[in-house]
Amino acid sequence: MSVNEALEILGLHSKTSNEQINIAYHKLMKSVHPDKGGSAYFAQKLNQARDTLLNSHTNTQ
C-alpha cells in the first residue's frame, strides 16, 4: 500500500504526526472491527494503512 492510499483510507493529510495517525485509526476501527459487526477486510485495510504511515515516519526520521 502506498503512503497516499494509506492517508486516504485514514482520512489524513500528508503532514501528520504518529499521534494523529493513531487517533484516526482508533476512531475508524471502532466502527469497522469485526467484533463490532464490521468487516474483517476493512479492519485489515486500516491496519495496513496505519502500519504503512507509521513505518514511513520511522524511515524518514
Automatic annotation (TrEMBL):
It is a single-pass membrane protein. It comes from Candidatus Neoehrlichia procyonis str. RAC413. Residues 5-58 form the J domain. It is found in: Membrane. Its main location: membrane. Belongs to the TIM14 family. PANTHER family: GEO10507P1-RELATED, PTHR12763. This is DnaJ domain protein. Keywords: Membrane, Transmembrane, Transmembrane helix. GO terms for cellular component: membrane. InterPro entries: DnaJ_domain (IPR001623), J_dom_sf (IPR036869).
